[in-house]
């Protein structure tokens, strides 16, 4: 091939590559100790990166350059550089970090330590612990209000959502929810948040004003035993009208109308669905399926499961990097 | 003394880790016990109807691939081989039946495993009780009692047995999950062979 042509072909290839890699889907594989990166367009695996032991919660840095990985069995949060695909730093996190949430300031990472009943606040730039906040037994879910003033932490064994004021580090409310609460999701206007309860099999909706329980949602799937319906990860649709809820070993994602709190339908996905993430444009929902070792792809407009993409062993967390 | 304290903590740990709402005290796994796998957790279509035992070809397929010792690839090959000669109406009738058969077998395998796990928990509880008893005996004995070395050894032995078994809980709990995973692989292969409308 003449040099000019080669160059043109190379440029075309690069351009194609750039267009196809508009966004990346990142998945933590709990049993493989890896992060899988998939092209958001083709859903082909771009690479598989080794990280610490038992990676579960993953969070994107504010500048989207790094991924914070909670490596529970390594007792640390790792910082994965998404350009070089190397773990470049460790953050102190307390024992057994399971998941984390980043404050809108991009500096403070709130980490739930399952083993020592603490929420650890870490400065991600200086890699130091800023504060440790004692909460209930087995802290788990973590949700920061859109304005950054409050962080809600759930404790698996105490069955409570603890509302922590970010500046003072004080707990301002303890709200009883269903058994073994897991995820926390705030609505975009910051007036309400949802808590999923894995053993209770319910969702609790809590209003910020007065930290009051505004409602509960239960689930039933014909042909699936009630105890298999275990609400865990959640994601709101772009317009906030629908809440997607992973139902664990029921292998289904429930679609809940956030206004009426009715369950509209459930979609059959892979086995033991843990966590959910929307594509940047909100048209696709990705689910991590811990037993079938794949990612299910839901077409949000059609409300149909369109694909299953194999990833690592026991996929858990999922994040979309724009 | 340090080791003694650590052991006490270890003994206390399984009880503390047990979620309060857990309905079954004999269930040691982090994941809640799901007594049976429902058809709708794996099969996208209507619940399969009919008696799979009454279809000799289906019963043969189930008998061939259901045992846990059969490798995944072999199971998938058998399903492909089973579906290949069938026309669309036969597929619509027989593939859901094959799923029903595999589901029934998987639930039976899980029942056995779940019972084994429960037995494991009860054994651990008895063992913990014995360690505690030996500890009390040791505490009651004067430092220079001639029976002490032998008692201390029995105590150490029982404690080690307990601790070593406790370390295997995560793996023990994986067994029913593996049955579920296997069934999922078979179910998806059967569904993929169903005629599209």
TrEMBL record, chain A:
| Signal peptide range | 1-22
Keywords from the named record: Signal
Task: Tell me the InterPro entries matching this sequence.
Answer: Host-pathogen_enzymatic-act, N2O_reductase_N, PQQ_b_propeller, WD40/YVTN_repeat-like_dom_sf, YVTN_b-propeller_repeat
Q: Which domain of life is it from?
A: Bacteria
Entries under PANTHER family matching the protein: DIHYDRO-HEME D1 DEHYDROGENASE, PROTEIN NIRF
The protein's name: PQQ-dependent catabolism-associated beta-propeller protein
What organism does the UniProt record list as the source? Roseicella aquatilis
From TrEMBL, chain B:
Leader sequence segment: 1-17
Give the coiled coil ranges.
103-137
Keywords of this entry: Coiled coil, Signal
Does this UniProt record's set of keywords contain Signal?
yes
Q: What is this protein called?
A: Uncharacterized protein
Species this chain originates from: Roseicella aquatilis
């Amino acid at each position: 091939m003449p040099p000019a042509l080669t160059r043109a072909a190379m440029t075309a290839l690069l351009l194609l590559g750039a267009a196809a890699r508009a966004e990346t889907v990142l998945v933590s594989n709990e049993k493989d100790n890896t992060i899988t990166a998939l092209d958001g367009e083709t859903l082909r695996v771009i690479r598989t990166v080794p990280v610490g032991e038992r990676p579960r919660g993953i969070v994107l840095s504010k500048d989207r350059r790094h991924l914070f990985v909670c490596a529970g069995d390594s007792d640390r949060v790792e910082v994965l550089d998404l350009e070089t695909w190397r773990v470049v730093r460790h953050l102190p996190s307390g024992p057994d970090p399971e998941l984390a949430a980043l404050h809108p300031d991009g500096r403070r990472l709130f980490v739930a330590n399952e083993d020592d009943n603490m929420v650890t606040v870490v400065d991600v730039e200086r890699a130091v612990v800023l504060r440790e906040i004692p909460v209930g037994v087995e802290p788990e879910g973590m949700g920061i209000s859109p304005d950054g003033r409050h962080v809600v932490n759930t404790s698996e064994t105490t069955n409570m959502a603890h509302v922590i004021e970010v500046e003072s580090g004080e707990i301002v409310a303890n709200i009883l929810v269903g058994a073994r609460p897991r995820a926390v999701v705030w609505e975009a206007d910051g007036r309400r948040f949802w808590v999923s309860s894995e053993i209770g099999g319910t969702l609790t909706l809590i209003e910020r004003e007065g930290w009051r329980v505004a409602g509960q949602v239960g689930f039933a799937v014909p042909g699936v035993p009630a105890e298999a319906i275990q609400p865990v990860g959640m994601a709101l649709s772009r317009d906030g009208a629908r809440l997607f809820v992973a139902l664990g070993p029921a292998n289904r994602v429930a679609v809940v109308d956030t206004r009426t709190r009715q369950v509209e339908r459930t979609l059959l996905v892979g086995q033991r669905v843990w966590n959910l993430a929307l594509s940047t444009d909100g048209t696709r929902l990705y689910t991590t399926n811990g037993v079938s070792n794949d990612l299910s792809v839901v077409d949000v407009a059609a409300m149909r499961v369109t694909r299953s993409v194999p990833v690592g062993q026991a996929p858990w967390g999922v994040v979309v990097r724009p | 003394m340090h080791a003694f304290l650590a052991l006490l903590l270890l003994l206390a740990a399984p009880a503390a880790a047990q979620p309060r709402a857990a309905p079954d005290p004999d269930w040691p796994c982090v994941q809640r016990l799901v007594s049976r796998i429902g058809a709708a957790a794996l099969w996208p279509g209507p619940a399969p109807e009919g008696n799979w035992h009454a279809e000799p070809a289906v019963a043969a397929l189930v008998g061939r691939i259901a045992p846990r010792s059969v490798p995944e690839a072999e199971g998938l090959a058998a399903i492909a081989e089973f579906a290949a000669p069938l026309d669309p109406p036969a597929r619509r009738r027989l593939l859901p039946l094959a799923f029903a058969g595999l589901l029934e077998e998987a639930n039976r395998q899980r029942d056995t495993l779940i019972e084994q796990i429960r037995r494991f928990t009860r054994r651990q509880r008895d063992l913990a009780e014995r360690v505690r008893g030996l500890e009390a005996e040791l505490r009651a004995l004067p430092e220079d009692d001639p029976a002490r070395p032998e008692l201390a050894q029995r105590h150490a032995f029982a404690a080690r047995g307990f601790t070593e078994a406790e370390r295997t809980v995560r793996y023990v709990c994986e067994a029913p999950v593996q049955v579920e995973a296997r069934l999922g692989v078979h179910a998806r292969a059967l569904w993929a062979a169903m005629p599209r409308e």
